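Journal club prep — side note

Before the paper discussion, L.F. wants everyone to see what a predicted structure for a comparable chain looks like in token form. Sequence:
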Amino acid sequence: MVTFYSQFVPGRFAPLQCDSTSERLSMMDAKTILSRRSFVTTSGAVAAVFVLPGCTDENAPSSPNPVNAEWESRAAELEATGEGIYTADDEMDLPGKGPTHVPLVTVAGKKVTVTTTHVMSVEADHFIQYHYVRDQADVIIAMQEYILGTDLDATMTFVIPEGTTRFTVYQYCNLHWTWKAEEQRVPA
């Protein structure tokens, strides 16, 4: 017997118990199954991960960093916009935007400075709204929001948390969505 959890209710899950695969599939429908992104967006919390026998990835990186549910929820909302996550190599429907949208990363020991060379224009209502950083296990380890009219540039500094081996910096432009820089290895 396998127990599935669906129909999110704040504070608890409603169990579905099934004896066969066909019975499980017949019980699942669009109303009872939420995607991880929907779960995060609608609940405002990080989706729980349930491990079924035989479904683990022993090679998946782990994170020593605590999960900040507010940051994870906000990043999920940002990443759901546009055509996906843009990169210097894949500008998708925004050709030519990479040079002013891909975050620039400078590492000096354990200190990291992130900047995006992008206009912060009150007149055009066009600006970098967020920088955030994910570690090797996709856990957000730093996030900064920029306020139009207050922040004159999109620059963030943070210290790499202990146990972090790799990280990737993202930025969100209010008109041109989410962009990410190349993954960085933490110096030894």
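L.F.'s comment for the group: Residues 122 and 149 are 6 Å apart (CA to CA). Keep this in mind when we get to the figures.
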